[in-house]
Amino acid sequence: MTTPIIDRISSLLEPVTSSLGLDLDEVELVGKAERRRLLIAVDRDGGVGIDQVAEATRAISAALDESDVMGESPYTLEVASRGVDRPLVSPRHWRRNAGRVVAVELVDGERFEARIRASDDAGVDLAIQGEVTRFPYDEIVKAVVQIELNRKDV
């Protein structure tokens, strides 16, 4: 659920991140008064490195300083890559994680782990114990990439 302030921040920052070749993946404002933290997650095909995060931080900070969207109260800005622990919520997340194992929960409550084979704007093909099954995104409640320490290229 977004709030009006998150929508305003997102509208301000979307062109900034886009101009850097990044997707504005998530905006979160936590805390109150002087302890507010503005958390910005960015992503792109091929991943985001420290240099891209630093460049994005400078550009985002400048855009926020030039606007009144954050008001007069102080805040801490944190810009980071999306990270693997965040749920897959858009088709681009699925596409960027092709070949990885995900923990999936469906609307009917079923839970399983599967490997992402392919995806498009409508759904994803998941390999479950070698059998590939198509799932429309609206059937998936939650999906999170699982860390594989000894990942085999598949």
Automatic annotation (TrEMBL):
Keyword hit for Cytoplasm: yes
Originating gene: rimP
Ribosome maturation factor RimP N-terminal domain boundaries: 12-85
Organism: Aeromicrobium flavum
Entry keyword set: Cytoplasm, Ribosome biogenesis
Function according to Swiss-Prot or TrEMBL: Required for maturation of 30S ribosomal subunits.
Domain of life assignment: Bacteria
Family membership noted in the UniProt record: Belongs to the RimP family.
Annotated TM spans: none
One Gene Ontology cellular component annotation held by this UniProt entry: cytosol
Domain Ribosome maturation factor RimP C-terminal residues, every copy: 88-148
Keyword Membrane (UniProt): no
Pfam family, one: RimP_N
SUPFAM superfamilies: YhbC-like, C-terminal domain, YhbC-like, N-terminal domain
UniProt-annotated location(s): Cytoplasm
PANTHER family (alphabetical): RIBOSOME MATURATION FACTOR RIMP (PTHR33867)
Gene Ontology biological process terms from the UniProt entry: ribosomal small subunit assembly; translation
Protein's UniProt name: Ribosome maturation factor RimP
